[in-house]
Amino acid sequence: MEQFDVAIVGAGPTGLACGIEIERRGLSAVLFDKGCIVNSIYHYPINLVFFTTPELLEIGDIPMTSLNEKPGRTEALKYYRRVADHYGLNVHQYERVLGFEGEEGNFTIRTETTDGQARCYRAKKIILATGYYDIPNRLNVPGEDLDKVIHYYREAHPFYNHDVLIVGAKNSACIAALELFWTGARVTLVHRGSGISPNVKYWIKPNIENRIKVGEVKAYFKTTVKEILQHEVVLSTPEGEVHVPNDFVLAMTGYRPDFEFMAEHGIHLDPLTSKPITNPQTLESERKGVYLAGVIVAGTHTNEIFIENGRFHGKVIAEAIEESLKVPA
After folding, report:
1. Are residues 56 and 163 in the same domain?
2. 163 DSSP assignment
3. Which of 13, 17, 106, 114 could form a disulfide with 314 if both were Cys (CB 3.0 to 4.6 A apart)?
4. Phi and psi for 85 in degrees, rounded to 5?
5. Are 116 and 205 within one domain?
6. pLDDT (0 to 100) of residue 310
7. CA-CA distance, 105 to 327, in Å (whole number)?
């Protein structure tokens, strides 16, 4: 059975940053991801442009270049591949971590590859850097499991000349609504709030509001989805129940960390903050030897940590691990 100093669950930007910092200290690290490297970014909309500048996405002191002021998805994928190659990180792609047992200094990690092979590894420490993009917040309404309900928007083309309902009114929902409208879809936007979120980017907000004002995008505010049927959606509006013709539902309702996996492995949320219980100086969880990195540190407050600040967790954790593994003189 292969043994490492540190096993890192998740090979997104934060997981890669952790791996770099661990190996910089002369320790061995293995990274696992059930998908490809930076799997979440790969699943972002194809034409996505980050709301930040290149230097704020950098890890491992490797400069990131961009043709424009803000980098796009394709540039980010290329950059993180280059970083992984530069540092020779041991990344096991398409290998899901099923769970782990043991205690600090002697953990056993169980994994499964996409072809069903079961594997086991040993590690002295574990870092969970699993992000939050894998589990969508559900609407919890009848019909949500129909094939036409989609929680991840990639591109507008497949929705041309179809009736599409978008649930949500934040950045992702507004961008999807605009792209679908421009591509020839008939777009209806539904939001439980009284209008487009005030936090929508300044160059997007007036655009979507103007489309709504002139009737090019239909919008129902202070409204929730009551039921999803094969050819229509039932809405609960301030004026009563409304039936809307529908071919696809894009539920842009956000995502959350895998709290169930954490709870199964001895990591629980603080009842006051809804954040996993960690040592703020080291990011070690209540389970000795298990550390949390990236957005999962924020628990349900997923808007508090992004790549820009989560990338620094690697150094904090690596320093703590290096200190704890020092052999007394």
Report:
1. no
2. E
3. 17
4. -65, -45
5. no
6. 75
7. 13
Burial of 224 (0-12, 13-18, 19+ CB in 10 A): middle
Residue 54 has φ and ψ, to the nearest 5°, of -55, -40
Residues of the domain holding 121: 2-134+255-325
Q: How many domains does the chain have?
A: 2
Question: What is the CATH classification number for the domain harbouring 8?
Answer: 3.50.50.60
Question: What Cα–Cα distance (Å) separates residue 152 from each residue in 44, 92, 125, 202?
Answer: 8, 24, 33, 23
Domain end (from 234, 251, 268): 251
- Contact, 313 vs 18, CB < 8 A? yes
- pLDDT tens digits for range 32-66: 999 999 999 999 999 998 888 889 899 999 999 99
pLDDT tens figures, 139-185: 999 999 999 999 999 999 999 999 999 999 999 999 999 999 999 99
Global confidence as pTM: 0.91
